[in-house]
């Protein structure tokens, strides 16, 4: 479904954020990318969505080279992206955004189901604006509801657990399960959360811009939990001397 | 009523034909139709152009339409409309203005509206301005609104000017008595070389009075806007003004607040935010499949909704 070949990306001051990344995400797979902060996880997600362009390398989606496709083109091909810090809009309501995500008119009952799935009472939220009056947790849940409505072939979630207040983790997990069951698409999640790692098919560890470990959950997760994450770190010697 | 007037009426007051209830339709400085009702009388002024609208006390739920249309170039329309709203009345006033130019000469409409609200009277005042037509003559609308609200009264003014008006200079003055409230919601979008200037001045004279001035605007191309808000808190009262503007292309927006607290219990606030559309807003909508242009249009549509 998604294939990254030799993808590298640098920022303006020349620092390499992604170094020669090769990554394949299969159809219907649930892949979690984890690793230390600053390791390049969000940069990788933004590169897949088309928000950032790689300096080198290519991206393929369903066999098509999307390296030079715009954000809009990738969205229309079936790449969805839930922001780590959702964007606020003055005057645009929750209803408007979910409809935009769904790509057209939606029956009221369907709109309500999406909100209900993320633990929000539809009648309290549907006509609210996505402005500063919503808390960080509320807007994050609306962002996830939009992903449910979007039904993308590949949905990327950048730290979906961040800021999820007063809403049980189990519900978030149920949302991912539902997404997977109903859309049968692939899911790429950036997360540090053990409980999200636990439901992954595959885990990718990204540190210092490189993939330091990759494989089935059964293989990677036990190592991570044993505190051996250091072994995936390319700068382990440096840290171990400190 | 000519065809252009009919079109303008649809644009400024969503009217198609004569409305039910009280109305006065002004066309090129003349009266093109009028109707009074049992509770709302509309009379021509005898000393100058314009009308008196008298709403009986306790009139509830009625709407008065007083649209004004200028249908061709070289018209300079000046009108004085006075509203006397009786105690405990609760009415809606729809006062749109459309200017259509077909030639090179300028046309303008200067509407001077005065509202006198009795005790506990409530008014929703809706005003929509639009300019249309193929002519090169400037379309000018200069509204003057004077609001005097007695004890416990409430007036909400929703004013919108989205396109086609080349020059506008709006002056709104308010004098508020005890527990009176004034809410003004202004929406403006300017294009080309248009200019729009807004001046609010409100005297909070009555204890417990309050004003809320909210302006949302978009300045595109080479257009320029000035927002001035002057609030004088003369007693225990609350005042808030807010100017929220998006600038695009070479657009220019100035926000000039002036708050004067003449009393230790006067609580006055001004907020202003002027800037371009946030890049991340456009990116978010693009990830939902909109093009950059569609995303921009959606953001502005929401902002000015």
Overview of this structure, please?
Chain A is 37% helix and 24% strand. Chain A has helices at residues 41-49, 71-77, 94-102, 108-117, 122-125, 136-150, 169-183, 194-198, 217-225, 236-241; strands spanning 2-10, 16-25, 30-34, 56-61, 64-65, 79-82, 154-158, 186-190, 202-207, 210-216. The mean pLDDT of chain A is 89. Chain B has 305 residues and is mainly beta. In chain B, helix 2 (279-286) packs across helix 3 (292-303). The chains are: A alpha/beta (242), B mainly beta (305).
Helix-residue proportion of chain B: 10-25%
Largest β sheet strand count, sense and barrel closure of chain B: 12 strands, mixed
The multimeric state of the shown protein is heterodimer
Query: DSSP strand (E) fraction of chain A?
Result: 15-25%
Q: Could you say which structural class the secondary elements and strand pairing of chain B correspond to?
A: mainly beta
Percentage of residues assigned to helices of chain A: 25-40%
Distance between the termini of chain B: 31 Å
Average pLDDT of chain B, rounded to a whole number, is 94
Whole-angstrom Rg of chain B: 20 Å
- H and E order of chain B: HEEEEEEEEEEEEEEEEEEEEEEHH
Mean pLDDT, all residues of chain A:
89
Number of helices of chain A: 10
Computed CA radius of gyration of chain A, to the nearest angstrom = 18 Å
Q: With helices defined by DSSP (H or I, 4 residues minimum), what is the helix count of chain B?
A: 3
The main β sheet of chain A shows up as: 6 strands, mixed
Largest interface: A-B, 24 and 22 residues
Number of DSSP E strands of chain A: 10
Number of strands of chain B: 22
Order of helices and strands of chain A: EEEHEEHEHHHHEHEHEEHH
Task: Set down the secondary structure blueprint.
The complex is a heterodimer of chains A (242) and B (305).
Chain A: E1 2-10, E2 16-25, E3 30-34, H1 41-49, E4 56-61, E5 64-65, H2 71-77, E6 79-82, H3 94-102, H4 108-117, H5 122-125, H6 136-150, E7 154-158, H7 169-183, E8 186-190, H8 194-198, E9 202-207, E10 210-216, H9 217-225, H10 236-241
Parallel strand pairs in A: 3-8, 3-9, 6-7, 7-8
Antiparallel strand pairs in A: 1-2, 1-4, 4-5, 9-10
Helix pairs in contact in A: 3-6, 4-6
Chain B: H1 3-13, E1 23-27, E2 30-35, E3 40-44, E4 50-55, E5 60-65, E6 68-70, E7 76-85, E8 90-94, E9 97-100, E10 107-117, E11 122-132, E12 139-141, E13 144-149, E14 154-163, E15 167-176, E16 181-190, E17 195-204, E18 209-219, E19 224-233, E20 237-247, E21 252-261, E22 266-275, H2 279-286, H3 292-303
Parallel strand pairs in B: 1-6, 4-7, 5-8, 6-9, 7-10, 8-11, 9-11, 10-12, 10-13, 11-14, 12-15, 13-15, 14-16, 15-17, 16-18, 17-19, 18-20, 19-21, 20-22
Antiparallel strand pairs in B: 1-2, 3-4
Helix pairs in contact in B: 2-3
């Amino acid at each position: 479904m998604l294939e990254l070949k030799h993808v590298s990306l640098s920022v303006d001051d020349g620092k390499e954020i992604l170094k020669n990344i090769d990554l394949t995400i299969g159809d219907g797979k649930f892949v979690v990318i984890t690793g230390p902060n600053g390791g390049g996880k969000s940069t990788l997600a933004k590169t897949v969505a088309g928000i950032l362009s790689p300096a080198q390398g290519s991206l393929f989606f369903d066999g098509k080279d999307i390296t030079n496709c715009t954000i809009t083109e990738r969205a229309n091909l079936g790449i969805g992206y839930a922001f780590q810090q959702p964007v606020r809009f003055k005057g645009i309501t929750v209803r408007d955004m979910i409809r935009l995500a769904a790509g057209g008119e939606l029956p009221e009952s369907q709109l309500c189901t999406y909100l209900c799935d993320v633990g929000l009472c539809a009648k309290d939220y549907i006509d609210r604006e996505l402005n500063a009056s919503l808390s960080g947790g509320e807007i994050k849940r609306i962002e996830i509801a939009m992903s449910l409505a979007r039904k993308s072939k590949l949905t990327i979630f950048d730290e979906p657990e961040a800021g999820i207040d007063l809403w049980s983790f189990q519900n978030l997990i149920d949302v991912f399960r539902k997404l997977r069951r109903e859309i049968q698409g692939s899911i790429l999640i950036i997360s540090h959360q053990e409980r999200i790692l636990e439901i992954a098919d595959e885990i990718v560890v990204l540190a210092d811009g490189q993939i330091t470990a990759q494989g089935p959950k059964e293989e990677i997760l036990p190592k991570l939990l044993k505190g051996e994450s250091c072994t995936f770190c390319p700068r382990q010697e440096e840290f171990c001397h400190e | 009523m000519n065809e252009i007037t009919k079109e303008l009426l649809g644009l400024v007051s969503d009217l198609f034909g004569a409305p039910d209830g009280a109305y006065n339709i002004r066309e090129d400085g003349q009266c093109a139709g009028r109707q009074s009702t049992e509770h709302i009388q509309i009379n021509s002024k005898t000393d100058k152009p314009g009308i008196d609208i008298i709403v009986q006390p306790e009139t509830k739920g009625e709407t008065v339409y007083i649209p004004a249309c200028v249908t061709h170039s070289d018209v300079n329309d000046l009108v004085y409309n006075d509203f006397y709203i009786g105690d405990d009345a609760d009415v809606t006033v729809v006062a749109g203005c459309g200017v259509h130019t077909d030639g090179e000469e300028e046309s303008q409409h200067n509407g001077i509206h005065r509202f006198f609200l009795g005790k506990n009277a409530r008014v929703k005042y809706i005003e929509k301005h639009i300019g249309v037509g193929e002519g090169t003559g400037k379309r000018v609308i200069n509204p003057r609104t004077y609001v005097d609200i007695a004890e416990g009264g409430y007036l909400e003014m929703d004013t919108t000017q989205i396109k086609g008006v080349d020059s506008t200079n709006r002056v709104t003055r308010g004098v508020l008595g005890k527990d009176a409230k004034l809410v003004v919601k202004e929406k403006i979008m300017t294009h080309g070389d248009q200019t729009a200037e807004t001046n609010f001045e409100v005297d909070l004279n009555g204890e417990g009075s309050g004003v809320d001035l909210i302006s949302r605007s978009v300045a595109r191309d080479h257009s320029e806007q000035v927002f001035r808000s002057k609030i004088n808190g003369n007693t225990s009262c609350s005042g808030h003004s807010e100017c929220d503007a998006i600038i695009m292309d070479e657009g220019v927006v100035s926000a000039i607040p002036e708050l004067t607290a003449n009393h230790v219990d006067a609580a006055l606030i001004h907020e202003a935010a002027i800037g371009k559309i946030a890049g991340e807003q456009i990116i978010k909508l693009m990830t939902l499949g909109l093009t950059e242009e569609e995303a921009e249009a959606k953001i502005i549509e929401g902002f000015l909704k």
